[in-house]
UniProtKB/TrEMBL annotation:
Protein name per Swiss-Prot or TrEMBL: Phytanoyl-CoA dioxygenase family protein
Keywords: Dioxygenase, Oxidoreductase
UniProt-recorded Gene Ontology molecular function terms: 2-oxoglutarate-dependent dioxygenase activity; iron ion binding
Keyword Transcription regulation: no
Alphabetized InterPro entries for the sequence: Phytyl_CoA_dOase-like
Keyword Oxidoreductase applies: yes
Pfam families the UniProt entry points to: PhyH (PF05721)
Source organism of this protein record: Paenibacillus cremeus
Amino acid sequence: MSEKGHRISYEILNMKPDEPKREIEVLATQEELTHLIKQGYLIKEDLFSGTGLEELRSALDRLEAKEKDDVGVNTMGNFGGLFLRYLMDKDETFLKFLQFQPLLSIARAMLGPQVQMGMSARISYPGPENQETIWHQHLRYIPKPLPPWFIRPHCLDVLLYLDDVTDANGPLCVVPGSHERIQEEPPAEYFGEMQGSIVLRPKAGTAVLQHANLWHRAMPTTSEGSKRRLLILSYYPTWLKRGLYGVQPADGLTKPLEKQDNEEILELLGKTGYM
């Protein structure tokens, strides 16, 4: 284990006394996890570079060419750009992320050993209007006031940038610590300045890990900018329902994996790990 990481040993209390503990080698420092807990985000630079980065770009470009005309680029709403769903079902290149330990180990450190994941992408283009997002958060179903036994939903979103982010092609804005403001929400349909916000301009190959309820927005991609390609990985507990976006291919690449007798894979695909 690297000096930059640490180990967590989980015991799952499921009335199966013979089930072995789950040993997680977390590829992050305690300081990094503390920052993620308190601030709601963590930046991991140079997660991909060189050939590995080019492989991801090429795979997303192939999918873009195949689906762009059918899916369509949204330039009329508050979430502009091209959104592509179920990436791991559509290209072998993305299937590597199913057990990608630099991210999965952090998700398990934050959420526990039993997690599932999904993967999508957003592409923004130079020029067209409305290719930005409003201030938003992803887990919006929280009642006010909080019921005594309310179970707060958690999700770790990973924004993996495949292109350098500049002021011209749409920086990421976040409000540190806002994921803990669970009895508040961002102003409706709001694109403007937010008190306490910071602007992030990740380099290509950098991942921004954030709690799904961190207040955030993407700024516009201008005519002076360039195309911005972004992979989005979402890790959440196995018992949390998946989002309703997109349609999973009936013959997707993950389908054969569902037939394997591999508890870890089945959990990651959301097929087990709940009652």
